[in-house]
Design brief:
By secondary structure, the protein is α/β, with parallel strands linked by helices. About 40% of the residues lie in helices and about 10% in strands. It is built from seven helices and seven strands; from the N terminus they run βαααββαββββααα. Strands 1-4-7-6 form a four-stranded mixed beta sheet, sandwiched between helices. A three-stranded mixed beta sheet has the order 2-3-5. Helix 2 crosses helix 5. The radius of gyration is 16 Å and the shape is globular. It starts with a strand and ends with a helix.
């Protein structure tokens, strides 16, 4: 689990809220993945939060014209920067907007069957679209769903046709809100097979 801020100053002023999101996410992921995967929070030491500069992606990964970060390049940087072993998946929790390829934006992205995944928080917040705050619970549910979705891709799962499955593609917040935070029976079986085969 790797929180990544928009800037070092933003990180310093919002450490407590970022902590609560990350630690809440760890609890949810532990329940969802169960004994299939172990959630390691050892990288979330207090020393980590005191040295934000090392966790920030380089400026050339930012598209100034679009005012968005380039997601696929963030993943490549994350892979190089964290260098996880073959049995480890790194999930970046990014507090900035991003796009990938022909898509105007992404809630998250992962290397399919790879070692890195990322989710992007701004568009999961209601106030990104209207001047109305969403509840912390609703925001937390969206973060969990997108994190599970992208980790599912990292474990080799593709998009699911079932609209309630967490692996269903989300083109909007409505899609994310509609689906469950868990895998459907079919995706769960595939996931277990993927993990067992490794």
């Amino acid at each position: 689990m790797q929180p990544i801020p928009w800037s070092s100053s933003e990180f310093e002023h919002n450490t407590s809220s970022r902590n609560s999101i990350v630690y809440s996410l760890i609890q949810h992921l532990s329940k969802i993945f169960g004994d299939m995967a172990r959630i390691n929070s050892s990288s979330l030491q207090s020393s980590f939060f005191q040295t934000p500069a090392a966790t920030m992606p380089p400026a050339h990964l930012y598209d100034r014209r679009r005012k968005q970060w380039i997601s696929d390049q963030i993943l490549d940087w994350l892979l190089q920067n964290k260098n996880p072993d073959l049995n480890t998946k790194v999930l970046a929790i990014c507090n900035f907007d991003a796009y990938s390829g022909e898509l105007n934006f992404v809630f998250g992205e992962a290397h399919l069957g790879g070692r890195v995944a990322a989710i992007y928080l701004p568009r999961l917040r209601q106030q990104f679209y209207v001047k109305k705050s969403d509840t912390n619970k609703l925001f937390e549910q969206r973060v969990v769903k997108e994190a599970v979705h992208e980790l599912g891709h990292a474990f080799g799962l593709t998009h699911c046709e079932k609209s309630k499955c967490v692996m269903h593609f989300s083109n909007s917040l409505q899609d994310t809100d509609y689906k469950y935070h868990r895998f459907c029976e079919r995706c769960n079986k595939i996931l277990k097979r993927q993990v067992t085969d490794k």
